[in-house]
Design brief:
Number of helices: 23
Strand content: 15-25%
Largest sheet: 6 strands, parallel
Radius of gyration: 25 Å
Distance between the termini: 62 Å
Number of strands: 20
Shape: globular
Helix content: 40-55%
Protein backbone atom coordinates (compact mmCIF):
# COMPACT_ATOMS: atom_id res chain seq x y z
CA UNK A 1 0.00 0.00 0.00
CA UNK A 2 1.28 3.50 -0.78
CA UNK A 3 2.10 5.93 2.02
CA UNK A 4 0.37 9.30 1.66
CA UNK A 5 -1.15 12.15 3.62
CA UNK A 6 -4.83 12.32 4.35
CA UNK A 7 -5.23 15.42 2.19
CA UNK A 8 -3.73 13.68 -0.83
CA UNK A 9 -5.71 10.53 -0.14
CA UNK A 10 -8.94 12.53 -0.01
CA UNK A 11 -8.30 14.02 -3.46
CA UNK A 12 -7.37 10.62 -4.88
CA UNK A 13 -10.58 9.16 -3.47
CA UNK A 14 -12.62 11.93 -5.12
CA UNK A 15 -10.98 11.13 -8.44
CA UNK A 16 -11.94 7.47 -8.02
CA UNK A 17 -15.51 8.69 -7.65
CA UNK A 18 -15.31 10.60 -10.94
CA UNK A 19 -15.02 14.04 -9.33
CA UNK A 20 -13.16 16.72 -11.30
CA UNK A 21 -14.74 19.87 -9.80
CA UNK A 22 -14.70 21.03 -6.18
CA UNK A 23 -16.81 24.02 -5.12
CA UNK A 24 -15.71 25.84 -2.03
CA UNK A 25 -14.98 28.83 0.18
CA UNK A 26 -11.89 28.13 2.31
CA UNK A 27 -11.02 28.98 5.88
CA UNK A 28 -8.25 27.99 8.29
CA UNK A 29 -9.50 24.43 8.81
CA UNK A 30 -9.50 23.86 5.04
CA UNK A 31 -5.86 24.93 4.57
CA UNK A 32 -4.46 21.37 4.39
CA UNK A 33 -6.83 20.64 1.52
CA UNK A 34 -5.99 23.92 -0.23
CA UNK A 35 -2.30 23.07 0.14
CA UNK A 36 -2.86 19.74 -1.59
CA UNK A 37 -4.79 21.41 -4.41
CA UNK A 38 -1.80 23.67 -5.06
CA UNK A 39 -0.03 20.73 -6.74
CA UNK A 40 -3.06 18.75 -7.98
CA UNK A 41 -4.28 19.86 -11.40
CA UNK A 42 -6.84 17.07 -11.93
CA UNK A 43 -9.52 18.67 -9.73
CA UNK A 44 -10.76 22.15 -10.59
CA UNK A 45 -11.46 24.36 -7.58
CA UNK A 46 -14.37 26.78 -8.13
CA UNK A 47 -14.33 29.59 -5.58
CA UNK A 48 -17.46 31.28 -4.30
CA UNK A 49 -17.60 34.22 -1.92
CA UNK A 50 -20.17 32.80 0.51
CA UNK A 51 -20.91 29.25 1.63
CA UNK A 52 -24.56 29.50 0.64
CA UNK A 53 -23.45 30.45 -2.86
CA UNK A 54 -21.05 27.52 -3.27
CA UNK A 55 -23.73 25.17 -1.96
CA UNK A 56 -26.13 26.47 -4.62
CA UNK A 57 -23.45 26.05 -7.28
CA UNK A 58 -22.89 22.44 -6.25
CA UNK A 59 -26.65 21.86 -6.36
CA UNK A 60 -26.94 23.19 -9.90
CA UNK A 61 -23.91 21.20 -11.02
CA UNK A 62 -25.22 17.96 -9.50
CA UNK A 63 -28.65 18.31 -11.06
CA UNK A 64 -27.37 19.25 -14.51
CA UNK A 65 -24.56 16.69 -14.71
CA UNK A 66 -26.12 13.80 -12.82
CA UNK A 67 -22.67 13.29 -11.31
CA UNK A 68 -21.50 13.56 -7.73
CA UNK A 69 -20.90 17.19 -6.80
CA UNK A 70 -18.49 18.04 -3.99
CA UNK A 71 -18.54 21.23 -1.92
CA UNK A 72 -16.13 22.20 0.85
CA UNK A 73 -17.31 24.51 3.67
CA UNK A 74 -15.65 26.13 6.69
CA UNK A 75 -16.53 24.58 10.08
CA UNK A 76 -19.74 25.45 11.93
CA UNK A 77 -20.45 29.00 10.63
CA UNK A 78 -19.72 27.88 7.06
CA UNK A 79 -22.07 24.93 7.33
CA UNK A 80 -24.63 27.21 8.94
CA UNK A 81 -24.34 29.69 6.07
CA UNK A 82 -24.98 26.86 3.62
CA UNK A 83 -27.98 25.30 5.38
CA UNK A 84 -30.68 27.13 3.42
CA UNK A 85 -29.19 26.02 0.10
CA UNK A 86 -28.59 22.54 1.52
CA UNK A 87 -32.32 22.37 2.26
CA UNK A 88 -33.04 23.20 -1.39
CA UNK A 89 -30.56 20.53 -2.52
CA UNK A 90 -32.22 17.94 -0.30
CA UNK A 91 -35.64 18.69 -1.75
CA UNK A 92 -34.22 18.48 -5.28
CA UNK A 93 -32.54 15.12 -4.51
CA UNK A 94 -29.19 16.50 -5.69
CA UNK A 95 -26.31 14.02 -5.21
CA UNK A 96 -23.77 16.14 -3.31
CA UNK A 97 -20.91 15.25 -0.99
CA UNK A 98 -20.91 18.17 1.44
CA UNK A 99 -17.65 18.43 3.38
CA UNK A 100 -16.48 20.82 6.05
CA UNK A 101 -13.12 21.30 7.69
CA UNK A 102 -12.99 20.66 11.41
CA UNK A 103 -10.42 21.52 14.10
CA UNK A 104 -7.90 18.84 15.04
CA UNK A 105 -9.52 16.23 17.26
CA UNK A 106 -7.09 16.73 20.15
CA UNK A 107 -8.20 20.38 20.28
CA UNK A 108 -11.97 19.90 20.04
CA UNK A 109 -12.55 18.94 23.66
CA UNK A 110 -11.75 22.54 24.57
CA UNK A 111 -14.57 23.74 22.28
CA UNK A 112 -12.39 26.18 20.30
CA UNK A 113 -13.69 29.08 18.25
CA UNK A 114 -15.85 28.00 15.26
CA UNK A 115 -16.19 24.44 16.61
CA UNK A 116 -19.49 22.55 16.78
CA UNK A 117 -20.72 19.01 16.36
CA UNK A 118 -20.88 19.25 12.57
CA UNK A 119 -22.48 15.86 11.75
CA UNK A 120 -25.32 16.63 14.15
CA UNK A 121 -25.83 20.05 12.55
CA UNK A 122 -26.06 18.59 9.04
CA UNK A 123 -28.00 15.41 9.82
CA UNK A 124 -31.60 16.68 9.34
CA UNK A 125 -30.85 17.73 5.74
CA UNK A 126 -28.76 14.83 4.41
CA UNK A 127 -29.05 11.11 3.80
CA UNK A 128 -25.99 10.30 5.90
CA UNK A 129 -23.72 12.37 8.14
CA UNK A 130 -20.46 11.49 9.87
CA UNK A 131 -16.97 12.62 10.86
CA UNK A 132 -13.68 10.84 10.10
CA UNK A 133 -11.86 9.85 13.29
CA UNK A 134 -9.06 7.66 11.87
CA UNK A 135 -7.07 8.15 8.69
CA UNK A 136 -7.37 4.42 7.97
CA UNK A 137 -11.15 4.85 7.75
CA UNK A 138 -11.06 7.71 5.24
CA UNK A 139 -11.33 5.56 2.06
CA UNK A 140 -14.21 3.49 3.37
CA UNK A 141 -16.11 6.57 4.55
CA UNK A 142 -15.62 8.59 1.34
CA UNK A 143 -16.70 5.67 -0.85
CA UNK A 144 -19.69 4.99 1.40
CA UNK A 145 -20.69 8.66 1.23
CA UNK A 146 -20.45 8.81 -2.58
CA UNK A 147 -22.37 5.57 -2.98
CA UNK A 148 -25.10 6.80 -0.66
CA UNK A 149 -25.44 10.18 -2.39
CA UNK A 150 -25.83 8.56 -5.82
CA UNK A 151 -28.01 5.60 -4.81
CA UNK A 152 -31.74 6.06 -5.48
CA UNK A 153 -33.32 8.13 -4.15
CA UNK A 154 -30.31 10.42 -4.62
CA UNK A 155 -29.48 13.24 -2.22
CA UNK A 156 -26.77 15.08 -0.29
CA UNK A 157 -24.52 13.51 2.36
CA UNK A 158 -22.17 15.19 4.84
CA UNK A 159 -18.59 14.48 5.92
CA UNK A 160 -16.59 16.36 8.58
CA UNK A 161 -12.82 16.38 7.97
CA UNK A 162 -10.67 17.12 11.06
CA UNK A 163 -7.34 18.79 10.38
CA UNK A 164 -5.26 15.99 11.88
CA UNK A 165 -6.85 13.48 9.51
CA UNK A 166 -5.86 15.60 6.50
CA UNK A 167 -2.31 16.24 7.79
CA UNK A 168 -1.47 12.74 9.03
CA UNK A 169 0.44 10.32 6.80
CA UNK A 170 0.16 6.56 6.65
CA UNK A 171 -0.02 3.57 4.34
CA UNK A 172 -3.55 3.74 2.97
CA UNK A 173 -5.60 1.25 0.95
CA UNK A 174 -7.78 3.49 -1.22
CA UNK A 175 -10.25 0.66 -1.99
CA UNK A 176 -12.61 1.35 -4.95
CA UNK A 177 -15.89 3.05 -5.81
CA UNK A 178 -19.25 1.26 -5.68
CA UNK A 179 -22.36 2.21 -7.63
CA UNK A 180 -25.88 0.98 -6.97
CA UNK A 181 -27.50 0.25 -10.33
CA UNK A 182 -30.48 2.65 -10.54
CA UNK A 183 -32.68 0.95 -13.15
CA UNK A 184 -35.01 -0.73 -10.67
CA UNK A 185 -38.03 -2.35 -12.33
CA UNK A 186 -41.30 -2.25 -10.44
CA UNK A 187 -42.98 -5.42 -9.22
CA UNK A 188 -44.52 -7.36 -12.12
CA UNK A 189 -47.89 -7.83 -10.44
CA UNK A 190 -48.11 -4.11 -9.71
CA UNK A 191 -47.28 -3.30 -13.33
CA UNK A 192 -50.10 -5.55 -14.50
CA UNK A 193 -52.51 -4.03 -11.98
CA UNK A 194 -51.60 -0.52 -13.13
CA UNK A 195 -52.17 -1.52 -16.75
CA UNK A 196 -55.65 -2.85 -15.86
CA UNK A 197 -56.60 0.49 -14.31
CA UNK A 198 -55.19 2.54 -17.18
CA UNK A 199 -57.07 0.52 -19.78
CA UNK A 200 -60.32 0.89 -17.87
CA UNK A 201 -59.90 4.64 -17.44
CA UNK A 202 -62.21 6.90 -19.44
CA UNK A 203 -60.45 10.14 -18.51
CA UNK A 204 -56.85 9.42 -17.49
CA UNK A 205 -54.21 12.02 -16.65
CA UNK A 206 -50.45 11.60 -16.28
CA UNK A 207 -48.33 13.60 -13.82
CA UNK A 208 -44.62 13.92 -14.65
CA UNK A 209 -42.29 14.34 -11.69
CA UNK A 210 -38.60 15.09 -11.38
CA UNK A 211 -37.75 11.39 -11.44
CA UNK A 212 -38.68 11.37 -15.15
CA UNK A 213 -35.98 13.92 -15.97
CA UNK A 214 -33.48 12.40 -13.57
CA UNK A 215 -33.88 8.98 -15.19
CA UNK A 216 -33.92 10.50 -18.73
CA UNK A 217 -37.35 8.96 -19.41
CA UNK A 218 -38.93 11.57 -21.72
CA UNK A 219 -39.43 9.11 -24.58
CA UNK A 220 -40.83 6.41 -22.34
CA UNK A 221 -43.44 8.68 -20.76
CA UNK A 222 -44.36 10.19 -24.13
CA UNK A 223 -44.95 6.69 -25.55
CA UNK A 224 -47.44 5.91 -22.77
CA UNK A 225 -49.19 9.29 -23.13
CA UNK A 226 -49.51 8.80 -26.90
CA UNK A 227 -50.95 5.32 -26.45
CA UNK A 228 -53.49 6.40 -23.83
CA UNK A 229 -54.31 9.75 -25.45
CA UNK A 230 -53.86 11.27 -21.99
CA UNK A 231 -52.69 14.79 -21.11
CA UNK A 232 -49.47 15.20 -19.14
CA UNK A 233 -49.06 17.75 -16.34
CA UNK A 234 -45.89 18.60 -14.47
CA UNK A 235 -45.99 18.12 -10.70
CA UNK A 236 -46.79 21.23 -8.69
CA UNK A 237 -43.28 22.05 -7.51
CA UNK A 238 -41.59 21.16 -10.76
CA UNK A 239 -37.90 21.97 -10.81
CA UNK A 240 -36.84 19.96 -13.86
CA UNK A 241 -37.81 19.41 -17.47
CA UNK A 242 -39.74 16.29 -16.55
CA UNK A 243 -41.63 16.19 -19.87
CA UNK A 244 -40.99 17.89 -23.24
CA UNK A 245 -43.19 20.97 -23.18
CA UNK A 246 -43.48 21.01 -26.99
CA UNK A 247 -45.17 17.59 -26.96
CA UNK A 248 -48.79 17.96 -28.15
CA UNK A 249 -50.12 16.25 -25.00
CA UNK A 250 -48.22 18.46 -22.56
CA UNK A 251 -50.83 20.57 -20.77
CA UNK A 252 -48.94 22.59 -18.16
CA UNK A 253 -47.83 22.54 -14.55
CA UNK A 254 -50.10 21.72 -11.63
CA UNK A 255 -50.58 24.36 -8.98
CA UNK A 256 -49.72 24.29 -5.30
CA UNK A 257 -53.09 25.21 -3.77
CA UNK A 258 -55.66 22.58 -2.85
CA UNK A 259 -58.79 24.22 -4.34
CA UNK A 260 -57.18 24.65 -7.75
CA UNK A 261 -55.77 21.12 -7.72
CA UNK A 262 -59.13 19.66 -6.79
CA UNK A 263 -60.83 21.54 -9.62
CA UNK A 264 -58.20 20.36 -12.11
CA UNK A 265 -58.25 16.73 -11.01
CA UNK A 266 -62.04 16.68 -11.02
CA UNK A 267 -61.85 16.47 -14.83
CA UNK A 268 -60.32 12.99 -14.62
CA UNK A 269 -61.16 9.55 -13.27
CA UNK A 270 -57.63 8.08 -13.08
CA UNK A 271 -54.31 9.75 -12.22
CA UNK A 272 -50.94 8.11 -12.86
CA UNK A 273 -48.12 9.98 -11.11
CA UNK A 274 -44.70 9.11 -12.50
CA UNK A 275 -42.20 10.31 -9.93
CA UNK A 276 -44.39 13.23 -8.90
CA UNK A 277 -45.02 14.17 -5.29
CA UNK A 278 -48.67 14.16 -4.18
CA UNK A 279 -48.70 16.96 -3.09
CA UNK A 280 -46.35 19.68 -1.90
CA UNK A 281 -48.69 22.58 -1.15
CA UNK A 282 -48.01 26.26 -0.50
CA UNK A 283 -50.84 27.08 1.93
CA UNK A 284 -53.19 25.13 4.19
CA UNK A 285 -56.77 24.56 3.11
CA UNK A 286 -59.95 22.90 4.32
CA UNK A 287 -60.31 21.40 0.84
CA UNK A 288 -58.48 18.18 -0.05
CA UNK A 289 -56.67 18.33 -3.42
CA UNK A 290 -57.76 14.86 -4.57
CA UNK A 291 -61.49 14.52 -5.26
CA UNK A 292 -63.42 11.48 -4.07
CA UNK A 293 -63.36 8.58 -6.47
CA UNK A 294 -60.16 9.51 -8.31
CA UNK A 295 -58.13 6.34 -8.90
CA UNK A 296 -54.46 6.97 -8.12
CA UNK A 297 -51.49 5.04 -9.48
CA UNK A 298 -48.02 6.08 -8.30
CA UNK A 299 -44.56 5.09 -9.52
CA UNK A 300 -41.48 6.43 -7.70
CA UNK A 301 -37.91 5.54 -6.72
CA UNK A 302 -38.48 6.87 -3.21
CA UNK A 303 -40.72 4.60 -1.10
CA UNK A 304 -41.37 7.48 1.31
CA UNK A 305 -43.29 9.36 -1.39
CA UNK A 306 -45.59 6.44 -2.25
CA UNK A 307 -48.87 6.91 -0.40
CA UNK A 308 -47.25 9.55 1.81
CA UNK A 309 -50.29 11.84 1.93
CA UNK A 310 -52.97 10.16 -0.18
CA UNK A 311 -53.55 6.43 -0.74
CA UNK A 312 -52.60 4.91 -4.08
CA UNK A 313 -54.62 2.07 -5.59
CA UNK A 314 -51.34 0.80 -7.05
CA UNK A 315 -47.98 1.92 -5.60
CA UNK A 316 -44.86 0.86 -7.50
CA UNK A 317 -41.25 1.22 -6.40
CA UNK A 318 -39.22 1.57 -9.56
CA UNK A 319 -37.27 3.68 -12.01
CA UNK A 320 -39.39 5.42 -14.65
CA UNK A 321 -37.05 4.66 -17.55
CA UNK A 322 -36.93 0.95 -16.67
CA UNK A 323 -40.57 0.53 -15.65
CA UNK A 324 -42.61 2.68 -18.07
CA UNK A 325 -41.91 0.47 -21.12
CA UNK A 326 -43.26 -2.53 -19.21
CA UNK A 327 -46.42 -0.62 -18.26
CA UNK A 328 -46.89 0.59 -21.84
CA UNK A 329 -46.44 -2.95 -23.16
CA UNK A 330 -48.90 -4.31 -20.58
CA UNK A 331 -51.49 -1.69 -21.63
CA UNK A 332 -50.95 -2.45 -25.32
CA UNK A 333 -51.49 -6.20 -24.74
CA UNK A 334 -54.90 -5.43 -23.23
CA UNK A 335 -56.24 -3.36 -26.10
CA UNK A 336 -58.81 -4.61 -28.55
CA UNK A 337 -59.73 -2.64 -31.68
CA UNK A 338 -62.52 -0.78 -29.91
CA UNK A 339 -60.36 0.44 -27.01
CA UNK A 340 -57.50 1.33 -29.33
CA UNK A 341 -59.83 3.43 -31.47
CA UNK A 342 -61.33 5.13 -28.42
CA UNK A 343 -57.88 6.03 -27.07
CA UNK A 344 -56.80 7.43 -30.44
CA UNK A 345 -59.97 9.56 -30.63
CA UNK A 346 -59.43 10.76 -27.04
CA UNK A 347 -55.85 11.70 -27.89
CA UNK A 348 -56.86 13.63 -31.01
CA UNK A 349 -59.47 15.59 -29.04
CA UNK A 350 -56.99 16.34 -26.27
CA UNK A 351 -54.30 17.47 -28.71
CA UNK A 352 -56.71 19.90 -30.35
CA UNK A 353 -57.83 21.29 -26.99
CA UNK A 354 -54.24 21.74 -25.78
CA UNK A 355 -53.20 23.44 -29.03
CA UNK A 356 -56.04 25.91 -28.61
CA UNK A 357 -55.08 26.63 -25.00
CA UNK A 358 -51.45 27.19 -25.95
CA UNK A 359 -52.27 29.59 -28.74
CA UNK A 360 -54.66 31.54 -26.51
CA UNK A 361 -51.98 31.90 -23.82
CA UNK A 362 -49.32 32.96 -26.33
CA UNK A 363 -51.68 35.41 -28.03
CA UNK A 364 -52.57 37.00 -24.70
CA UNK A 365 -48.88 37.38 -23.86
CA UNK A 366 -48.03 38.83 -27.29
CA UNK A 367 -50.84 41.35 -26.96
CA UNK A 368 -49.02 42.82 -23.94
CA UNK A 369 -45.60 42.99 -25.62
CA UNK A 370 -45.80 46.73 -26.27
CA UNK A 371 -46.73 47.74 -22.73
CA UNK A 372 -44.38 49.64 -20.47
CA UNK A 373 -43.40 48.77 -17.79
CA UNK A 374 -42.84 45.24 -19.10
CA UNK A 375 -45.47 42.61 -18.42
CA UNK A 376 -43.80 39.38 -17.24
CA UNK A 377 -45.84 37.03 -19.44
CA UNK A 378 -45.05 39.07 -22.55
CA UNK A 379 -41.35 38.91 -21.74
CA UNK A 380 -41.40 35.16 -21.11
CA UNK A 381 -43.24 34.49 -24.38
CA UNK A 382 -40.75 36.55 -26.37
CA UNK A 383 -37.78 34.94 -24.64
CA UNK A 384 -39.23 31.51 -25.37
CA UNK A 385 -39.28 32.30 -29.09
CA UNK A 386 -35.81 33.85 -29.04
CA UNK A 387 -33.77 31.25 -27.18
CA UNK A 388 -31.77 28.71 -29.20
CA UNK A 389 -33.07 25.11 -29.06
CA UNK A 390 -30.21 23.93 -26.83
CA UNK A 391 -30.62 26.69 -24.23
CA UNK A 392 -30.85 25.77 -20.54
CA UNK A 393 -33.17 27.92 -18.43
CA UNK A 394 -32.70 28.41 -14.68
CA UNK A 395 -35.80 29.92 -13.09
CA UNK A 396 -36.33 31.58 -9.74
CA UNK A 397 -38.83 34.26 -10.63
CA UNK A 398 -41.63 33.32 -8.21
CA UNK A 399 -44.55 35.72 -8.76
CA UNK A 400 -43.33 36.72 -12.24
CA UNK A 401 -43.07 33.15 -13.55
CA UNK A 402 -46.75 32.48 -14.25
CA UNK A 403 -47.02 30.39 -17.42
CA UNK A 404 -43.26 30.02 -17.85
CA UNK A 405 -43.43 26.27 -18.43
CA UNK A 406 -45.86 26.86 -21.31
CA UNK A 407 -44.16 29.94 -22.73
CA UNK A 408 -40.49 28.85 -22.66
CA UNK A 409 -39.97 25.39 -24.18
CA UNK A 410 -37.97 22.74 -22.33
CA UNK A 411 -37.35 19.92 -24.76
CA UNK A 412 -34.80 17.64 -23.08
CA UNK A 413 -34.18 16.53 -19.48
CA UNK A 414 -31.35 19.05 -18.96
CA UNK A 415 -33.11 22.09 -20.43
CA UNK A 416 -34.80 23.52 -17.33
CA UNK A 417 -34.02 23.75 -13.62
CA UNK A 418 -36.12 25.58 -11.05
CA UNK A 419 -36.23 26.15 -7.31
CA UNK A 420 -37.55 23.03 -5.60
CA UNK A 421 -37.05 23.68 -1.92
CA UNK A 422 -38.42 27.22 -1.81
CA UNK A 423 -35.47 28.80 0.01
CA UNK A 424 -34.80 31.84 -2.14
CA UNK A 425 -31.42 32.89 -3.51
CA UNK A 426 -30.84 29.62 -5.34
CA UNK A 427 -31.13 30.82 -8.93
CA UNK A 428 -27.91 32.80 -9.48
CA UNK A 429 -25.48 30.24 -7.99
CA UNK A 430 -27.37 27.29 -9.47
CA UNK A 431 -26.94 28.83 -12.93
CA UNK A 432 -23.19 29.03 -12.36
CA UNK A 433 -23.10 25.35 -11.35
CA UNK A 434 -25.21 24.35 -14.35
CA UNK A 435 -22.84 26.20 -16.69
CA UNK A 436 -19.86 24.40 -15.17
CA UNK A 437 -21.67 21.11 -15.82
CA UNK A 438 -22.87 22.03 -19.32
CA UNK A 439 -20.22 24.40 -20.71
CA UNK A 440 -21.27 23.99 -24.35
CA UNK A 441 -24.92 24.97 -23.85
CA UNK A 442 -26.30 28.51 -23.50
CA UNK A 443 -27.47 29.08 -19.91
CA UNK A 444 -30.03 31.78 -19.10
CA UNK A 445 -31.04 32.46 -15.50
CA UNK A 446 -34.38 34.22 -14.98
CA UNK A 447 -34.37 35.48 -11.41
CA UNK A 448 -36.44 37.94 -9.38
CA UNK A 449 -34.81 40.97 -7.82
CA UNK A 450 -35.48 39.90 -4.24
CA UNK A 451 -34.04 36.43 -4.82
CA UNK A 452 -30.98 37.84 -6.60
CA UNK A 453 -29.99 39.88 -3.56
CA UNK A 454 -29.66 36.73 -1.43
CA UNK A 455 -26.75 35.43 -3.51
CA UNK A 456 -25.40 38.20 -5.74
CA UNK A 457 -21.85 37.02 -4.96
CA UNK A 458 -22.41 34.31 -7.58
CA UNK A 459 -21.88 36.98 -10.24
CA UNK A 460 -18.24 37.29 -9.16
CA UNK A 461 -17.65 33.56 -9.63
CA UNK A 462 -19.18 33.72 -13.12
CA UNK A 463 -16.82 36.57 -13.97
CA UNK A 464 -13.74 34.93 -12.44
CA UNK A 465 -14.14 31.72 -14.45
CA UNK A 466 -15.48 33.39 -17.64
CA UNK A 467 -18.76 31.45 -17.41
CA UNK A 468 -21.08 32.78 -20.11
CA UNK A 469 -24.32 32.81 -18.15
CA UNK A 470 -26.93 35.42 -19.05
CA UNK A 471 -28.52 36.56 -15.78
CA UNK A 472 -31.95 38.13 -16.41
CA UNK A 473 -33.09 40.07 -13.33
CA UNK A 474 -36.84 40.70 -13.26
CA UNK A 475 -37.05 43.88 -11.21
CA UNK A 476 -40.40 44.86 -9.71
CA UNK A 477 -38.68 46.55 -6.73
CA UNK A 478 -40.51 44.40 -4.23
CA UNK A 479 -41.17 41.03 -2.68
CA UNK A 480 -44.26 40.83 -4.86
CA UNK A 481 -45.23 37.30 -3.97
CA UNK A 482 -45.59 38.42 -0.33
CA UNK A 483 -47.76 41.33 -1.39
CA UNK A 484 -49.98 38.95 -3.32
CA UNK A 485 -50.26 36.58 -0.35
CA UNK A 486 -50.98 39.30 2.21
CA UNK A 487 -53.55 40.80 -0.17
CA UNK A 488 -55.33 37.45 -0.20
CA UNK A 489 -55.83 37.75 3.57
CA UNK A 490 -58.19 40.70 2.88
CA UNK A 491 -56.92 42.45 5.97
CA UNK A 492 -55.31 45.79 6.74
CA UNK A 493 -52.66 45.62 4.00
CA UNK A 494 -55.26 45.01 1.31
CA UNK A 495 -57.47 47.80 2.61
CA UNK A 496 -54.74 50.40 3.02
CA UNK A 497 -52.25 49.42 0.31
CA UNK A 498 -49.53 49.38 2.96
CA UNK A 499 -47.02 46.53 2.65
CA UNK A 500 -44.55 46.54 5.52
CA UNK A 501 -41.12 45.13 4.67
CA UNK A 502 -42.01 44.25 1.08
CA UNK A 503 -40.72 47.17 -1.01
CA UNK A 504 -37.16 47.42 -2.37
CA UNK A 505 -37.26 50.91 -3.86
CA UNK A 506 -35.92 53.36 -1.28
CA UNK A 507 -33.11 53.26 -2.13
CA UNK A 508 -33.46 51.43 -5.42
CA UNK A 509 -31.04 48.55 -5.97
CA UNK A 510 -28.69 49.40 -8.83
CA UNK A 511 -28.23 45.99 -10.41
CA UNK A 512 -26.09 47.33 -13.24
CA UNK A 513 -23.64 48.88 -10.78
CA UNK A 514 -23.72 45.74 -8.65
CA UNK A 515 -22.93 43.56 -11.66
CA UNK A 516 -20.08 45.78 -12.79
CA UNK A 517 -18.64 45.71 -9.26
CA UNK A 518 -18.56 41.91 -9.56
CA UNK A 519 -16.91 42.02 -13.00
CA UNK A 520 -20.04 41.22 -15.02
CA UNK A 521 -21.18 43.31 -17.99
CA UNK A 522 -24.71 44.66 -17.54
CA UNK A 523 -27.53 46.28 -19.47
CA UNK A 524 -31.00 47.62 -18.62
CA UNK A 525 -34.13 46.87 -20.64
CA UNK A 526 -37.40 48.78 -20.36
CA UNK A 527 -39.22 47.04 -23.22
CA UNK A 528 -39.70 43.43 -24.25
CA UNK A 529 -37.89 44.03 -27.54
CA UNK A 530 -34.87 45.55 -25.78
CA UNK A 531 -34.71 42.66 -23.32
CA UNK A 532 -34.79 40.03 -26.07
CA UNK A 533 -32.07 41.84 -28.04
CA UNK A 534 -29.88 42.10 -24.95
CA UNK A 535 -30.36 38.42 -24.02
CA UNK A 536 -29.48 37.35 -27.56
CA UNK A 537 -26.39 39.55 -27.48
CA UNK A 538 -25.35 38.10 -24.13
CA UNK A 539 -25.64 34.54 -25.44
CA UNK A 540 -23.71 35.40 -28.58
CA UNK A 541 -20.96 37.16 -26.61
CA UNK A 542 -20.18 34.08 -24.52
CA UNK A 543 -19.28 36.12 -21.43
CA UNK A 544 -21.27 36.54 -18.20
CA UNK A 545 -23.90 39.23 -18.71
CA UNK A 546 -26.63 40.70 -16.53
CA UNK A 547 -29.80 42.02 -18.15
CA UNK A 548 -32.03 43.99 -15.78
CA UNK A 549 -35.66 44.25 -16.88
CA UNK A 550 -37.98 46.77 -15.23
CA UNK A 551 -41.31 45.00 -14.64
CA UNK A 552 -44.77 46.28 -13.95
CA UNK A 553 -45.25 46.44 -10.18
CA UNK A 554 -48.94 45.53 -10.23
CA UNK A 555 -50.02 42.57 -8.14
CA UNK A 556 -51.58 40.50 -10.93
CA UNK A 557 -49.83 37.20 -11.70
CA UNK A 558 -47.57 37.58 -14.71
Amino acid sequence: MPSMTGKRAFLELLKQEGVDVLFGNPGTTELPLMDALAVDTDIRYVLGLHEGVVMGMADGYAQASGKLAVVNLHVAPGLGNAMGMLYDAQKAAAPILVTAGQHEQSFNVTEPILWADLPTMARPLVKWSTEVHRLADLPRIVHRAAKTALAPPTGPVFLSLPGDILNDEAEIDLLAATRVAPRIRADRAAVEAAADLLVQAERPVLVAGDAVAQSRAHDELAALADLLGAPVYLEGVSNTASFPTDHPLYRGAMGRLSPGLRQLLGQFDTMFSVGGDLFTLSLPSDVEPIPEGLVTIHLDLDPWELGKNYPARVAMLGDPKATLPEITDAVRRRLDDGRRTAMARRGADMRARIAGEREALAAKARAEAGKSPVQAAALLEAVGRALPPDAVVIEEALSSAGGIRNLIPSRDPQSFFGLRGGGIGWGLPAAVGVKVALPDRPVVAIVGDGSAMYSCQALWTAARYRLGVVFVILNNSSYRILKQRVNALRGHAAQTGTYVGMDLEDPAIEFQSLARAMGVASTHARTVADAVDQIRAGIAGGQPTLVEVTLDRGLGIG
